[in-house]
Design goal:
The protein is mainly beta and 142 residues long. The protein folds into two domains: 69 residues, no CATH class; 66 residues. It has one helix and eleven strands.
Length: 142
């Protein structure tokens, strides 16, 4: 991490806002805030919010302006080891939206090569069909 990043991080810990220039109006400057729960305040575009109660996988958000916030660090879900049965299997991820990426990760290759067919993922489940008898885990990333 470069020195400027360390300095900004230190300033954020004491609640100081970051500005693009010295004469920029405070009301339009991006802010760096923290709190429990999801961000709800309307902050200037580029603002950062750190969720500090740790109840969800994603705890860093950025403001797109107008009260809209988006996660900065993607959330992920990793399944327990499963055995393929040759049919579509559902894996709950808890995102509330379809995952951006789903990967079936082999956990035992003693059975040789295996085939994965990905289904149409939903806001509640990642869907994979894996060769019967092959062990794997599913990684879903929001």
């Amino acid at each position: 991490m470069d020195i400027a990043s360390k300095f900004r991080r230190g300033l954020s810990m004491v609640g100081l806002a970051l500005k693009g220039s010295a004469d920029e109006d405070d009301s339009t400057s991006p802010t760096l805030t923290s709190g429990a729960g999801a961000p709800t305040a309307t902050e200037p575009t580029g603002s950062i919010y750190v969720r500090n109660n740790g109840t969800v996988p994603t705890s860093l958000y950025r403001s797109a302006g107008g009260g809209t916030w988006a996660p900065v660090i993607p959330a992920y879900a990793l399944s327990n080891e499963v055995v393929g049965n040759g049919a579509a299997q559902n894996f709950a991820h808890g995102f509330g939206v379809a995952p951006a990426l789903v990967v079936a990760i082999p956990s035992d290759l003693t059975g040789g090569a295996y085939t994965v067919v990905y289904g149409v993922h939903t806001s509640t489940n990642a869907i994979c069909t894996v060769t019967t008898g092959e062990k794997y885990r599913v990684l879903a990333i929001r």
